[in-house]
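Obj.: predict assembly geometry.
Materials: sequence records (below).
Method: joint structure prediction, all chains together.
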Amino acid sequence: MNEIPLWASESFWKKMAIWVTAGSFLILVVLTMDSLSKTSAGSQRVPAYNVINKKIDYQYNKASHKFMPIIGDNELLFGKEYSEEEARQLVDLGKKTTQAKNCMNCHTLLGNGAYYAPDLTKAWLDKGWISKEMREDMMVKFLMNPEKNARTFGSNRKMPNLKITEQEAKGIIAFLKWMSSIDTNGFPYNFKTINAEE
Amino acid sequence: MNTSGLNKVMENTSALCEKSLVYRNNFKTWVQLDSSNLSDGQQLAVKYFTVAVILFFAQILFGLLAATQFIYPSFLYEILDFSVNRMIHINAMIIWMLYGFIGCVYWFLEDESGTEIVGLKLGNIAFWVLTSAVTVVVLVYLLVQIGPGKDSSLWFINEGREYIEAPRWADIGIVVVMLIFFYNVVATFSKGKWSGIAGVLTLDLVALAGLYVAGMFYMTNITHEQYWWWWVIHLWVEATWEVLVGVIMAWSLMKLLGVRRKIIQTWLYIEVALMFGSGILGLGHHYFWIGTPEYWLTIGGFFSALEPIPLVAMVVHAVYDSGAHAFKNSNHPALAWIIAQAFGNFFGAGVWGFMHTLPQINMFTHGTQWSASHGHLAFFGAYATINIAFFYLAIQHWRGDVWMGGGSQNAWRWKWALGLLNGGVLGMTIALLIAGYEQSFIERAVEGSTWGGYFTAQNHPSFQSAMNWRLFFGGITFAGFILLVWDLLTIGKGETRKAPEIIES
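Observations (raw C-alpha cells):
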C-alpha cells in the first residue's frame, strides 16, 4: 500500500498546474479580445466621445431589471457642438487631467479608487449641481476654485486647489459627461439623476 | 560669489557626514550583527529587507496621516492632502512587499540552486538603482504632487492610477530591475540545479514582470484603461504574488520544520493549479461595473467564489505540517508568523474577499470601505506576515544560527509585536467593515449613490466612530511595528546556544 496513487503524485499535479494555468490564461485572452472590441469608444456599451453633444440620463429599465444610460437629443456642452475628433481631444484632456491631479486617490471612478470623496461615475448627472442650467458653470467654478466654491455637504471635507485651468476644467467636465453615458451594468443602483422629478 | 558662505556650508556638510558616520558605527557596535555569517546572496537579500522595513514604516506613517484626515479634514490640508498620503500609503506597501519578496528569493537562491548567484554584481547595482528611483519617486510625490493635464505629468510626476501611480520613467526602471532579477534567478538555477520550486518561481516571475507592462499605457477610454489596470493589480495580487508566497512558504517550511521536498512540491503544484485556476478568471470580479459585457458577472462571480479554496488548502498544509512535526522547529517567531500568514491569507484574502465578491452583493459594496477592510486584512495577512517570518529567519542566520526556540531571552517582545500587529490590523479591518456596511446601506441602497447620499453616509455617527476606531487600531499597529523593529535588531543578541538542527523527515 506504499504506492502513491496517481491523483496524489507530484507529476500529476505538475501537469495539472501547467494545463490549468495555460487553459485559464487562454480563456482570459479570448474574453479580453471580445471585451475590448465590445467596449471600444463608439460601441453600444461605451458611446463615442461626441456623445457629449447629447442629453444623457440614467433610468431603470424594467425589461433588464437594471439602471441604464439613456442617450437623448442634442444638449450641447458649453454651447458648442463638437466633432468626434474635437470631442475626443476634449475628453482626452479631461481624462489626462484627472490622472495628473491624482483624482483617484480621493475619489472613485467607475467605483474604483479611494473613498475620501464621492464617486465620479455619474457625477455629471448628480443632483448636487442643483439644476441643469447652473450645472456647467458651477462645475467649472468648483474645479478651478474648490476652496471658495466648496461643496462639503456638512462634512468639512474640502477639495484642495489643484490649479486646474479653465480648459482643463472643461475637459474634466466633458470626460465626466462622457463617462456617465457608459453602460455599467446597473451600477450605481437606484441613482436619481438631476433630470428626475421629485 | 561669497566663498566664506560656501566654505561654511561645506564644513557643515562634512561635520554632518562625520556625525552620521559616528552614529552608524555606534549603531553597528550596538546591534552586533556579524555579516560573515551571510553568503553573498544573503548579504544582498538583507539590503532588500532593510529597505523593506523602512518602507513598511512609511506605509504605516502615511496611513496614520490619511486616517487622521478622515476625522480632522483640515489636518495638513493643501500641504499633504489625503490623496498624497493615501498614494504613499499604498505605494510604500506595494514596494516594501516587492522588496521583501526579492530579498526572500535572493536569500534562498544559492541554497536552492546549490551554487553562487551568477550576476551578483548586477543584482547589487539593480538594488541601488531601484532604491534611488524609489527615493526620487517618493520625493516627487511629496514635493511636486501634481502636474498639468499633459503627458509630461504622467511621465515625470505621477500616473494617477491607484497602486501603480509611479511615473512612466520609473515604470521602465522597475521593468529593467525585474529583468535583472529574473536573469539572476534563471541563470543561477541553470548553472546549479533546477527543482520544482525553481520551476514554479521562474514561470511566476515571467508572469509578474510581463503583467506589469500591461499597466504602462495611457488610454482615453476609461473602460479599456481600467480593464488593463486590473490585469496588473489583480493578476499580481490575487495570482502571481500568491504563487510567489507559495514558493517562499514552501522553502521556509522545509527549512523550519524539515518537511520532505516531495510533499512540499506536490502541495506547491496543487496550490498553483488551484490559485491560477480560480484567480486568473476570478479577475472578472473587477469587470462587473466598468463598462465591460455582462458575461463577466457570471464568470467573475463564479471563479472568484472559488478563490478561497487554495487558501484553505494552504491553511491545511501549514497546520498539518506543523502538527505532523509536533511543532518542532528551529525558529519560533518565524513559525508563528507563518501560521499567522496561513490564517491571515485565508481570512483576509479568502473570507473577506468572498464576502463581497458576488455581483448581487458587490453592486452595493463596490467602492465603499468594504474594499478597504478587505485590503487591509488581505495585504497584511497574505504578504506582510510572510515577509516578517522571513525577516526572523534572516536575522537568526545573521546572528550565526542561534537559538530562537523556547526559553529565549526577551521572547515577550516578538510575542507582543505579533499580537499588537495582528490585533491592530484586525481592529482596523473590523472598523472599516462596519463603515463599509453603513455605506452600503445608507449611501448605496437607500440614497442611490448620489453625492448627497455619499456625504449622508460619511456624516453618520456609526461611520465616524468607525473612523475613530480605525485610527486607534492604526496606532496599535504602529506600536507593534516599533516593537517588531526593536525585536528584530536585538533578538538573539548575546545568545550562545545554537539552533537545533532540523532534519528532513
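Conclusions so far: The two ends of chain B are 75 Å apart (CA to CA).
To do: check interface contacts against the pulldown list.
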